[in-house]
Structures are given as structure tokens and as C-alpha cells.
Amino acid sequence: MPHFDIHRNSNNFSYCIARLMEQYGFSLSEHIYFLFSCGLWLNVKPGGLAFGNGSGGGYWVETDNPYRCEYLSSAFGCPYQYRTIDGKNALAWVAGRMERNDPLLLEVPETILKVDEQSQSGTARTLYALVKSMHETGQLTDDTEIQLHFSALLQKTFSYQELNKYITRHPEVKAIMYFAPLKIEPDAFMKEMIVQSIIKQYYILRSCFCHPREHGFESLKLALLEEKDSHSALKEHFRLLKSLNYDVLVEKHPSLNREYYAHSLEEAAHEYKIDLSGWINAFHHNAEVWNHIMSEVKMMNEPSFKDMINLYDTIGSNEDRLLSTCESMIGKWNYS
Amino acid sequence: MNMKSKVIINDYRHIPGGQCLSVILRGVFEREYIRLSNDMIMGLSSQLYFGYGCDTKTKMYEISTFSPVNFNHLMANTGARLKILQSEDKKKAFDRMISLLNNNKPVPIIVHPFCCPSLRQSIPDDFIRYVPYHWILVFGYDNERQEVHYHDPMKFKSFTMPFNDLEIARASKTEDELYDPDNRWMEYDFPEQMIPLPTAIQLAIKHVAYYYNHVHTHFPRLYVGLKGLSIFIRQIKSWRNVLNDAELINNAIRMFISINLANSVKGGFRYQYARFLEESAEITKNDELKNISRYFVEAGRMWLELCGAFQYIAKNPHDTKVWETNSSFFQILDGVYAREAAAIAKIVALEFPCKCYF
Question: Are B38 and B15 in contact (CB under 8 A)?
Fold first, then answer.
């Protein structure tokens, strides 16, 4: 496999949105889009993807907000249009957009990158790609080159025919367009929307933490306690935690994007003169603990049952601390 | 697909009135024990909006008085999880609907207005072509009779539609690709912890005001908020000079339908927003919201007058007095802007103090 330098301070969705909006003539940094899309999320879901073989049992982790497109649309009030592109001529709609030079994103499963086994296991990430075609004008042909841009450092080129074939086999692929805001009187609106996005992000994390049906980490700990004599259960739980430590070719995934969020807050605070120091500190601290947890997991070979319980306890108290700190800060904002 | 012989979900309580998706979502929320009025759902959807699009080549003008992303706002402001899904494959879309119904989940779906018999009972066919799309709520099916049971947001009673007709209604094309039903439906989930209602209200109200005041344009040429309203008013005043009779009538009807769309009682949803603010005043213990609600009642009255003016223009395209500088029509247009601007200014000045700035 060719080696790509992993982009450490980037987020796939935010990068693509930033490039898309630029094509409309609307420019913000990718960090700001991450804030507006409320990208942080943490749900552990039962079933599905143990080692990608689709066998029953096991868990998988959702670490990107599956509603980020909708949150972004709400923040700016921008309508957006999307289509699944299953069906006979899978790329027809996409092709029409490209021929008119309308900016376009694809929402694709991470398998499109053919990532290795380790990074596949336990996750089912959705990636975004900015679509660029390599033709001058006129209609696309089977041989026309289509470039998908995932990050500043990663693009993948297909022929039109190849991409059509891939999409036909993956009906979950979607094409997305936003109708970007073009003129905003920036500061007053942006300040208010940033504050709102931070509040909404807090409630999202809280809802994830407390969601009984989707197994927060507390539920995982309880599940492990019930299966404490089962070696295979212990192995599954360890696999799950290891899966959080993945490096995809698109971006590194440190601290489940908490570090990236802290940087986003720093940028917003500086750009729009908002006092976010408490929030920044809270997310930096949360990210540090996640980094520590992930380092420990990386060094483990065969953790004991007690090791796993301790890890779950550390995760739980880290999240709890973050949420309590955020709650007290929202109170000071008088949004209550 | 595992089709049962009959599935009817009985515990969805339907209350018609207002914007179609908001009406449906009120019922969906209530099933999850979150009891909110139609007006509260509308307000939490930051639905108060003005958008204006003009195509000078085709001489087609359109306005909207409710937000095109209202369900996104509702999700962001409340913490409910709402997603509109779509499939090119009609069978997949149908199978998914059946699966949700089998799992006791009523399904909001989009249909082509002309293919919706219940909507055609409410709106004359001549006007239906101005309705971009329509949401209905499917709450059951009968496999033996090959039909679905659904609620129409504009009607009290429930309706049935044959499977084949539903397939057509979900897939037919409209004049604008943006509004094609495209086999879209909504799925929803309600987490245990959502945003507390007073917070949700504050988020929703401030979002409306800041958006209205500070966002002016969307790609490609959609003018929004107060800026959009002023451009709309300025351009309308020259319609008689730039449009022929047929174009004038067509656009006047289009404006009339848009203002009264989705049973907004000809007030462009401003009356509903006023009621939302009155309810919110009680919940947030902020009496100022009651004062502000009166501004929206006034604004609603102006939109009502404007609605009547467009009806008149459509029937009397040759009345030149309408287009004189001091005509009552021009005064109504200016009055709409003045009321909206005053109402929004009041909200912006509202004391929901935020202590986070330097």
C-alpha cells in the first residue's frame, strides 16, 4: 500500500464542506464548519461489523455525527439537495451536475479507499469526497477521469465507468449539494451561531452518553461484567476499543475529534472575539485523557478483565467530567 | 418484504392545520410523549422566514414564507433526530415504509401535489400547480385491498390510497427538480435526553432573528430575510412595466398561493408565529415575548392584505391605479416591510443575555 502522510489536524467532512462552499464563493475555515455541523458524537451500537464480516454479535462505534449535514444546513439556513444514486444509470444525476460545473459532494463508505483490515474493524465510517472531473467541457464519457478529494493530502482517481460500477455495488452512496449562503453580515450572526452550535453540541454529547438503546460505554461495562468468564467477550471488547485508535488514509483519529474540536473553538474564539476559554480547556482535557486511554490500549496485548473494566471506568468518568463542566458553562450563558 | 395482511397504527393523534411537515411532526413528537402544539412545533422549527427568487429570463417570481430547512432547525433546536431519506428504487422505498409500519412507526412521506387526492379536495386544480410538494403521514396499510392509510395535514379525516397510486405520487416529477418527491420519507428517533424546552425556545427565536437580519443571499439567487423582503418589494413595484398580462396574472396567483400556502390563513405564518411567542412567554417566563407577539399579529394582518391585493391583481391586470406610487397596494407592500422590520428588531433587542463575549 502506498504510504500517505496522515493529515493530523483535519476532518474529512469539514474539509470537503469547506472546499465545496468555496466553489460557491463562501469561505470559512474547515474548523468553523466542524463547529456548525456539531461533528462530535459517540455511540456504541450493537451488532454488525465485527471484523467487517457482518457476523452477529459484537459492537461497533459511531464517532461522527450522522446528522452533521442537517446540523450544518440548520446553522446557515442553507437548503441542501441530495440523492442516493442507486439504480440503472447510477451516475446520471451526478454527471448532469458535473457537466454544469455545479459543486458536488459524494457520501461514500470508507471501503472506497480499500483501507486495511485494522482500520476497518469495528467502524463503519462514512466519508465525504469533493467531486472533480477532469474534462474540459461537454458530456462525460466512460473514460473521463473523476477525482474524489477526501482531504488536502488524499485524492483518488477513477474513470467514470469504474466509479459507476462501484456505486452500483454500493447503493448507500449519496450525492449532496448545498445552496450556500453568499452574503452574511458576519460578526453578529457568526457569534450567535457559534454559541448556539456549542450548546447544541453539548446536548448531542449528553444524548449520546445517556442513550440507553444504543449502549453508551456504561452499558458496555455492564455487558462485560455479565460475561466476565468469557474469553471471547473480553476479546470483542478489546477489539472495540482498539478500533477507536484507527488511522484512516484520510485523517488520523486522535481523541475522537475532541482535540480537533478544541482547536475549532480556539479559532472561533480568536476570529470572532468570544470568550470560550472554559470550553477550550474542557475539551483539551477530555482529549488528553482519550489520548492516554488510546495509548494504553495500543500498548496492550492481552488485557485482563480488570484492565478492561478500568478502561471503561476511565472513559465514563472522562465523559462525565466533560459534560458536567459544559453544563455549568451553559448555565453562565443564560441559555437555560 | 414481510407484508402482514393489515397494519393500522392507532395511537397517532392527528390535528390538522399549519405547514404540512410541522403538523405531522407534532403528532410524531406527541407519540413520544412530547406534547407540543402545532404553533410550538412551528416556532421551534425556526420556521419564520422570507425567501425570494426571481428568474428574469422566464419572468417567474416566487416567494416563501416558511423556512425550507424547518425540519433541520427543529432537530437542531430540540435534539430530536430527524432524517429525510431517499431512494431511486421505488421498491426499496416502499419496502422500507412497510418495514417501519410493521415496527409501529408511522411514516412521513412526500408526494406530488397533483397525485394527492386529499390535497385536491382542499385546493382547486388551477392552484395546485403552484404548490411545490406535500407531506402526508402514512399510518397503516391493508395488503388485501392493496392500499395505504394516511393523514393529510390539511384535513381532519384520514384517507386511503392504492399502492399503485402511492408509487406514482412518490415518484412523479414536478416543474422544479428541487421539489421532486423522489421517493423521500422521514425517519426519526428521540433520545432520552433532549434540549430542555425553554432552551430550545431561546435557540429557535434567536436563530430566526439573527438569520432574518444578517443573512441576505443564498446560492444561486435566493434573497432572504429583511434584505430579501426589500428587494422583493422594490421589484414587485415595477411588475406592470416588465410583465405582460399573462405573466402578471401567473405571478400574482403564485404570490397569493405562496402567502396562503399550507393553510397559513393568508398571513404567511405570522399569526402562527405570534401564537408561538405567546406560548413561549409562559414557558420562559418572559413577558416581553407577549409584547413582541403583537408585532407579528400586525405583520400577519399586513400579509393578509397583501394576499387580497394579489388576488385583486390576478383578476384585474389592467387596473393601472394599482401601480401608482401612492396606491394602496404600494402602501401595503411598504407596510409589510415596516412591520416585519419592527418585529425582528424587537426580537434582536430581546433580553436573552449572553455573557460570553469579550
Answer: yes
B147-150 long-range contacts (CB < 8 A, ≥24 apart) are: B148/B97, B149/B8, B150/B118
β-pairing, A80-84 vs A174-178, is antiparallel
For residues A64 and A125, is the Cβ–Cβ distance under 8 A?
yes
The phi and psi torsions of B134 (rounded to 5 degrees) equal -150, 135
User: What pLDDT does residue A52 have?
Assistant: 37
B236: nearest Cα among B92, B71, B54, B98: B54
Among the residues of chain B, which ranges form H helices? 20-31, 38-44, 70-78, 90-102, 117-122, 125-128, 163-171, 197-214, 225-236, 239-242, 245-259, 270-284, 288-315, 328-348
Question: How high is the pLDDT of residue A49?
Answer: 41
Which residue in B201, B95, B282, B87 sits closest to A196, CA to CA? B201
Average pLDDT over residues A160-175: 83
DSSP secondary structure code for residue B125 in this structure: H
How much is the average pLDDT of A135-142? Answer: 68
CA dihedral B251, B257, B260, B263 (to 10 degrees): -170
Give pLDDT, residue B276.
Answer: 96
For A307, phi then psi, to 5°, come to -60, -45
Mean pLDDT value of segment B115-135: 83
- Contact status of A298 with chain B (Cβ, < 8 Å): no
DSSP code of residue B34? -
Instruction: Spell out where chain A has E strands.
Output: 40-46, 59-64, 80-84, 105-109, 126-133, 145-149, 155-159, 174-178, 181-184
Determine, for residues B214 and A78 on separate chains, whether the beta-carbon distance falls below 8 Å: no
Distance from CA of B76 to the nearest CA of A (A): 6
Q: What ipTM was reported for this prediction?
A: 0.93
Cα of B273 vs its chain's centroid, Å = 12
Which residues in chain A are closer than 8 Å to B352, comparing Cβ atoms? 334-335
Q: Does A219 touch chain B (CB under 8 A)?
A: no
Residue B35 CA to residue B311 CA, distance in Å, equals 37
Q: Number of helices (H) and strands (E), helices first, in chain A?
A: 12, 9
Q: Which helix (H) or strand (E) holds A203?
A: helix A186-209
Q: How far is CA A336 from the centre of its chain?
A: 28
Q: Which pLDDT does position B347 carry in this prediction?
A: 87
Whether pLDDT at A163 is above 90: no
CA distance A221 to A167: 38
Q: Which of A25, A87, A200 sits opposite B89 (nearest CB)?
A: A87
Q: How far apart are CA A333 and CA B280, in angstroms?
A: 19
